[in-house]
Write a structure and sequence with these properties.
Strand order of the largest sheet: 4-5-6-3-7
CATH superfamily of the largest domain: FAD/NAD(P)-binding domain
Strand content: 25-35%
CATH architecture of the largest domain: 3-Layer(bba) Sandwich
CATH topology of the largest domain: FAD/NAD(P)-binding domain
CATH class of the largest domain: Alpha Beta
Number of domains: 2
Distance between the termini: 6 Å
Number of helices: 5
Shape: elongated
Number of strands: 11
Structural class: alpha+beta
Length: 207
Amino acid sequence: MTARFVIACDGWRSPIRQHLQIPVRERRYGCHFVMGDFIDRSGMAEQAHLFFTPDGAVESFPLPGGIRRWIVQTPGPMLVIPRGFISRIVQQRAGLVLDAASQLNHSTFNPQRLDCASLYRGRVILCGDAAHAMSPIGGQGMNVALPMPRCSRNCCPRWSGAQETLRRSWSAMNKNAGAPPGSLRIAPPKACGWGPGQGAPPPGCGM
């Protein structure tokens, strides 16, 4: 397969980013959570609710189809989640009764941060979690990721002078997102051994 441009939206583990050997800086936050989806009988309708207590946080927000997600903070990682654990913690911290029988699933997560040394290499542009993983709390990753495809779309047709075009476009996006100036470093145009106007990338670039 060959293409003029590639937009990599393959998640925070990003095999494409790894193949291009773009350096990353990773940091895990020191907090842990268990979350589960319940048939929603809370009466909270479309509202999200946050509860902060000395024992940890509880978060709740609606999902489509009459489902509500509940997230409880835990002191550390949990390898085994006892039946009814989320319902018990929600009642202890928020005073709300959740029917454990209405729980549909559960999972655990530990928020982390990932920043890339560069958001593109050659004619490959990273987007979404492939470019910047961050805590899912508050929709941070989603809100930062939403402008990126549009920015990339605007960059690709004007690839002549790619360094300056990308610098201006990403700088504008960073400014709108509140990122500090100079937080983006553009990779050399031939970091993958090829650049604009050189046709299809060589096999070593995996495209």
